Amino acid sequence: MPEISKMKKPDVKVVILGDMNVGKTSLLHRYTERKFRDTISTVGGAFYLKQWGPYNISIWDTAGREQFHGLGSMYCRGAAAVILTYDVTSWQSLAELEERFLSLTDTANHDCIYAIVGNKADLTDPRAQLPADPQSPAEGGEPGTGPRVPSACPTPPASPLSPGSPPQQVGREEAAALYGRVLRYKGLDEGSSLPADRMCFETSARTGYNVDLLFETLFDLVLPSILRKRTENQRSPTVDLEDYCEPPGRRRGCC
Amino acid sequence: MLNALPCSYWDGNMERDYPQKEGAEELNICDQPTEGPGAYADTLATSLSLLGSHMFPYHGEVVDRDVKTSVSTEDPVETLLPDPTAVERTSTLEAELSQKADTESQESEDIGLSAQSDEVVLAEASVNNGKDSSGEFVVALLAGSKLEEHCVGTEGTSSVLSESIAEEAPPLSHRDEDVTAESWRQHRKHVFVLSEAGKPIYSRYGSEEALSSTMGVMMALVSFVQSGDNMIRSVYSEERTVVFVQKGPLVLVCVANSRQSEQQLRDELLYVYYQIISMLTQASITRIFEHKKNYDLRRLLAGSEKILDGLLDLVDWDPSFLLAAVHCLPLPSSLRDSLSQILQKAITPNLVFSILIAKKQLVTIVQEKTVIEDARLEPADVHLLLNLIGASSAFQAGEIWTPICLPLFNPDCYFYAYISYLDPPECTVCLLLLSTDKEAFYAVAECKRRIEEAMVAQNSLSLIEKAQSYSVSQVGVSDLRHFMYKPFDVPDNHRQLTQFTSPEMEAPYSSAEEKMRLLDLYRYMHSRIHSSSRPLKLIYHVAERETLLAWVTSKFELYTCFSPLVTKACAITAITKLLRWLKKEEDRLFIRYPPKYSTTPNPSKSSRKSEQQDSTDNGFMSLL
């Protein structure tokens, strides 16, 4: 469609994945609006365009609910970076990343980069409790400004796999181990990929801890991918994200 | 526990229909609940009393009866009249109105007030027993006398019986409510959803886990009655009505003391069912439960509770649901037309509906040509869409892309909805584009940009901003306080979306309590008009603080509310004036000619369906 030139064409795509209630929308909201507030469970996926220097970065904030599972691979198609998000107070949410979300990234770019992000770090790490953003002192309209207790952000009832067990905290080592397994799943060589200590983050959307660091690190890392795509596009200017063709027969899994 | 019951009484009607012996057994079981003889009524009674002891601590007495033996000569609504001073003199009124209509017929023919004999004749006599469910059961839970310290976790049963209507500002989380507390029981309307295996799926108040035994008893009731090839429909007590709706593998239960008719509660439960379908589709729910009977559907609905909560609040506060019609934003027809044209031009393949919403009301809707030939968009589907938008707008800067099913349009298929606000950060004007193509996000988003540009060029946003609901004073009838007017299809436009119009609720209906009181009166009038056993065409109802007149003809349905001292003659004149005003304003109040576009170059009806079939489960089946 030639007339779509008016639209700010996204140069690159970043996707946020993870179980429900881990704080995907809150992370993005903290980054774009500099605020933390109660969010409602996302339906489907939400698309945002972020101006990063001369580039347009599209960010897909996806729903973590199982209801929307099938859409994940569509949101991930042609992604240059995937943010795999878990809740540091919920071991289950980390396990879900591997069980449910990793396979969705099959449609991402071959050189896609992966970040493992443990959100809600303010609940476990005293460093994360200090507001990272001095301009926003009190937290939005949130009623209780005192330190949250884990029960204030309940593990979703949707995980009957861990019946009644108290939330188990997730250490950085476990996240790093998952990062290793992600690389292996992708058939990437750990030596030539980005190291785990650069790609595993602990963040707090509530205080803003590490949130900018996360997004900005990723944006910088996807720049080469933008540049390469631009040069490719000069050769065949009609190729874009939507035209990415996945290998046939790959998606139909079980069921 | 039940033998603490003071001697209970039998309702005369019930007794007549019920063998005395059974009644005796009934009392028997109360004495020895564990050693019931296993007779049908006994087991049922036990389940009922279990349910009763949780839901209605005061009532322990139960009776079941077969509806076929008790053709409803008794009119439960009559006894529930909210106001003992209420009078209905419909027949005389009818005569007056028809007389009036006769004299006015010349000028008012076009506004539907003509004295067509079939319209003005009251339908009171036409008791329709035709489809009375001979095999279905109505179980009546008789309100016994007050019973103390009777059940699970209640002590100090205060006798606060009137439900305060001021529930509309609910505590932050209904999920954390203590389900054994008195306040939990006193909610005006409970709604439960469970699976056929008795697994809790949703509860409006309190967590499903805490209610799993209550829901288990509900399911026991349903399946017990079912085992006798019957279907449980409702349970009545003095204060509450329990309504059961079974849809496929789901059972929906409503426990209400809102004094609504059973049919109204049933319709509300259907909205809940349809909202669930809109998220999962009927086909996949059926398949899930075929696959695994005791599947915990909350896994798939987790996160959607707020959508259901929001729906139930809307059902209580928005008469659109009662009237099954869409309320659209009053706009000058020229503006509405120009907005429609903007939507009509911004199209892409597989786009089927373009809907513009402002201030939570419909502005305009444009449909794909072939779609409109197949079926029209049902008001209920629009309600579900509006509720979804309302419940998912937490973070409004983004563009949402989500699958959604329109259950009345096609309960088994998904559409893909693009939702975006055109006026951030205020977020009152919302564009909703529905496509059948899962991959069409970027193409549809481009349509939005074209629509946005055109609207900027025409300065539409600020014009929409100025539009607002109207005041009843514009009608210029002094005694008229409020009304709801729902015209039926006009003959030349059968495929029109059913709409209604209504002014703002102004003083004395400005407080939440008063609003709800008026809505309750309307619901009462509606239940009389639509009563299955004794439908009425015209009701003149003198209530304590206002006088209401409801009138249904083949052309419209009208509910009006007047000041209490209005005379009948005044009310009739007022309605004549109102109808004339509505006729004059209809271009502004309604979407008159919904435009269409064509996005499929080779329209074939089958293509629409086959495209979607493969995505009915939306991928989550693989997770089961």
UniProtKB/TrEMBL annotation, chain A:
One of its GO terms (molecular function) is GTPase activity. This is RAB20, member RAS onco family. Keywords: GTP-binding, Nucleotide-binding. InterPro entries: P-loop_NTPase, Rab20, Small_GTP-bd, Small_GTPase. The keyword GTP-binding applies. Belongs to the small GTPase superfamily. Rab family. Residues 125-171 are annotated as: Disordered. Residues 153-166 have a biased composition (Pro residues). Pfam families: Ras. SUPFAM superfamilies: P-loop containing nucleoside triphosphate hydrolases.
Automatic annotation (TrEMBL), chain B:
InterPro entries: FUZ/MON1/HPS1_longin_1, FUZ/MON1/HPS1_longin_2, FUZ/MON1/HPS1_longin_3, Mon1. One of its GO terms (cellular component) is Mon1-Ccz1 complex. Residues 93-115, 158-177, 594-624 are annotated as: Disordered. Residues 480-586 form the FUZ/MON1/HPS1 third Longin domain. Residues 350-451 form the FUZ/MON1/HPS1 second Longin domain. Residues 613-624 have a biased composition (Polar residues). Residues 189-311 form the FUZ/MON1/HPS1 first Longin domain. It holds the Pfam family Fuz_longin_2. Plays an important role in membrane trafficking through the secretory apparatus. This is Vacuolar fusion protein MON1 homolog. It comes from Gadus morhua (Atlantic cod).
